[in-house]
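Researcher: Let's do a round of design. I'm pasting the structure tokens now; please hold your answer until I've finished.
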């Protein structure tokens, strides 16, 4: 779903916008993964993988919503 919304958004952007979105998305992916790893480390123990997966899911859903808002703002 994230990739689908990302591609839809990219399709309506200028070259400069595509470059900016690509950089932002790459930075966001690093943030998402590091934040999920941190959440798991705080939990520690046997629940750590569950917490990490939950955090990845939550952050990804939030990003999908954010990208969908951007796409709607551009009229697509």
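Researcher: That's everything. Go ahead.
Model: Designed sequence:
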């Amino acid at each position: 779903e994230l990739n689908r919304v990302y591609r839809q958004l990219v399709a309506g952007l200028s070259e400069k916008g595509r470059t900016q979105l690509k950089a932002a998305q790459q930075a966001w992916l690093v943030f998402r993964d590091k934040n999920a790893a941190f959440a798991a480390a705080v939990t520690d123990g046997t629940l750590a993988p569950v917490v990490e997966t939950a955090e990845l899911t939550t952050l990804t859903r939030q990003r999908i919503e954010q990208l969908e808002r951007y796409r709607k703002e551009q009229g697509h």
